[in-house]
Amino acid sequence: MDRSPSDTSAGCLGIALVAAIVAILLLAARSPGLRVRTAGHAAVLLPKASSTVTPSPTTTHTATPTASPTNTPTASPTATQAPTRTVPPSVSPSPTHTPLPTHTPSPTAAPTPTPTSLPLPTPDGAERELIVPILMYHYISEPPNNADEYRLDLSVRPADFEAHLAYMRSAGYTGISLYHLLDALAWGRSLPEKPVIITLDDGYRDNYESAFPLLKEYGYTATFFILTEPIDHNSERYMTWNQIEEMVAAGMDFEPHTKTHPDLRDRSHDFLVWQVLGSAQTVQAHTGRYPRFFAYPSGRYDDAVLEFLEEINFWGAVTTWSGAVHTWESRYQLRRVRVKGGDSAAVVAEKLQWGP
Ligand SMILES: [Zn+2]
Fold first, then answer.
1. pLDDT at 189
2. Which ranges in the chain are annotated with CATH 3.20.20.370?
3. Residues linked to residue 175 through DSSP beta bridges, in sequence order
4. Helix (H), strand (E) at residue 338
5. Has residue 12 got a pLDDT over 60?
6. Which of 137, 145, 160, 342 is deepest in the core (most CB within 10 A)?
7. What is the pLDDT confidence band of residue 215, given thresholds at 50, 70 and 90?
8. CA of residue 261 to ligand 1 center, whole Å
9. How far does residue 237's CA lie from ligand 1's centre (Å)?
10. Ligand 1 centre from 354 Cα, in Å?
11. For residue range 188-202, what is the model confidence (pLDDT) as tens digits?
């Protein structure tokens, strides 16, 4: 992008945004064609105009949409993902919201590649119920000697993880992404006969050291839901941004899991802006792509969180509820299949069959 946010003073930006918002409101009053998101929910002005490109049934998450000529002026500031940018005011309907300075991505952020923004798939109205197991992993490593029962439960040994992948490959399971699943739910994109989605929560360092080489070896990709603050602080327990960028280049998906893993229930809008949108923007600063999926920390959320994800134009979110049946309506409460420490390939084979 050739735009430099630093040459616009905050005052000018504020005036420009107010003017742009007034212009949009006037335009909305006159033009029914103003692009708002209406996919089965209350129309919401999109916080990111580049996501308002005309949805294409052939778009995949690797596609690079071209900017629509209908982009509104408010789009311009949000289209540039410079590491220093702050949250656009249009994200928050609350006039009292002040973007927190810590929304700025870490100064260690690499130069941002050209952002690719994806349009929400437009549902064709057909009701679909798809069975796709979304496996949920956390640690892929030997648990420490002093591990408590929770840590043991969350720790899958690399040899077991390899056995799971080997089983899935031999049984004909094809790895797909959450983007594929949403396309399938929205407009019937075809899925392989035995689809599986592999997810790993929290962003532990062993995901890079142990899971990543095995995923590549067995020909699977995975979605990593990461906590951005410990990564920003270079915590040794978590992956580094350099490692994550290497994994992105190898086809892995990275989506936010908040900054610090808080309970998101009964929180203010500003708190959600900080934890959810803030972590999403940090992920974007390092991957070059605005994330579209979220994992609720410890599976906890309330209606305000569900509404907020729509507000910031997310496509869906995964829970810790058990199950493998998905519908368009359930896209913000996708169920998963928990893989526990000690699960053999035979146990995973059984869990993959869960279905309804
Ligand atoms: Zn977690």
1. 95
2. 130-351
3. 196
4. strand 334-338
5. no
6. 137
7. very high
8. 6
9. 14
10. 23
11. 999 999 999 999 999
Tokens of 185: 């739910």
Q: Distance, CA 231 to ligand 1 centroid (Å)? A: 14
In CATH, the architecture of 130-351 is Alpha-Beta Barrel (3.20)
Q: What distance in angstroms lies between residue 35's CA and the mean position of ligand 1's atoms?
A: 35
Q: Separation of 217 CA from ligand 1 center, angstroms?
A: 26
Residue keyed to tokens 């742009």: 20
CA separation for the pair 221, 346 (Å, rounded): 21
CA of residue 187 to ligand 1 center, whole Å: 30
254 C-alpha to ligand 1 centroid (Å):
14
Radius of gyration of the chain (CA): 20
**Higher pLDDT, residue 187 or 101:** 187
Whether the per-residue pLDDT at 23 is higher than 50: the answer is: no
What is the distance in A from the centroid of ligand 1 to the CA of 353? 25
Give pLDDT, residue 307. Answer: 97
pTM over 0.85: no
Give the Å distance between the CA of 257 and the centre of ligand 1: 7
- Helix 241-249 and helix 278-287, axial crossing angle in degrees, nearest 10: 60
Tell the residue number behind the tokens 């594929």, with chain if given: 180
Distance from the alpha carbon of residue 234 to the mean position of ligand 1, in angstroms: 18
How many whole angstroms separate alpha carbon 257 and alpha carbon 33?
35
**Whole-number Å distance between alpha carbons of 190 and 172:** 16
For range 118-136, the mean pLDDT: 90
Q: Are 120 and 47 in contact (CB under 8 A)?
A: no
First to last CA, the chain: 47
Tell me how far apart the alpha carbons of residues 24 and 45 are, in angstroms, rounded to a whole number.
10
pLDDT at 35 over 60: no
- Averaged pLDDT of the chain: 77
How far, in Å, is the centroid of ligand 1 from the Cα of 323? 18
Residues ≥6 apart with Cβ < 8 Å to 136: 199, 200, 201, 318, 320, 336, 337, 338, 339
